[in-house]
Amino acid sequence: MTRNLDRRVEAVTPVETPTLQHELDSILDALTADNRKRWVMDAAGSYVQQRPDAGEDPEIAHERLMTRAREAVPKIPAEYDSDGSEQRETAVDPDDIYMNEPFEP
């Protein structure tokens, strides 16, 4: 897969809020702990997909982060569920999560 390294713009900014620093550290920890879906560039510039060692459980960052996200959002009360099945929808407006300050995980 080619990478867009020639036409890409990146921005860097300090993160000074301790809560946000903690959140970023937690996300980076999940990404670097991934031993199944993560690719690492070796010294020759080739990418090697990570695999769990023998007897080691797979750690997949996407699954870990999705679990955290689901646990952080309240479920819709059962009385709003028409068929009694588990709700995947939430009672939270995404704009409330991303647009309002301060962020509280």
Low-pLDDT runs: none
Total DSSP helices: 3
What Rg is obtained from the alpha carbons, in whole angstroms? 19 Å
- Largest sheet, strands/sense/barrel: 2 strands, antiparallel
Structural class of the helices, strands and pairings? mainly alpha
Tell me the span between the first and last alpha carbons.
Answer: 34 Å
- Secondary-structure element order, N to C: HEEHH
Overall form: extended
Fraction in helix: 25-40%
Question: What does this 3D model show about the protein?
Answer:
The structure is a single chain. With 105 residues, the chain is mainly alpha-helical. It has one domain (18-98). Helices cover 31% and strands 6% of the residues. It has helices at residues 18-33, 61-72, 94-98, and strands at residues 39-41, 47-49. The protein has a two-stranded antiparallel sheet with strand order 1-2. A hairpin with a 5-residue loop joins β1 (39-41) and β2 (47-49). α1 runs antiparallel to α2. The chain is extended, with a radius of gyration of 19 Å. It starts with 17 loop residues before the first helix and ends in a 7-residue tail after the last helix.
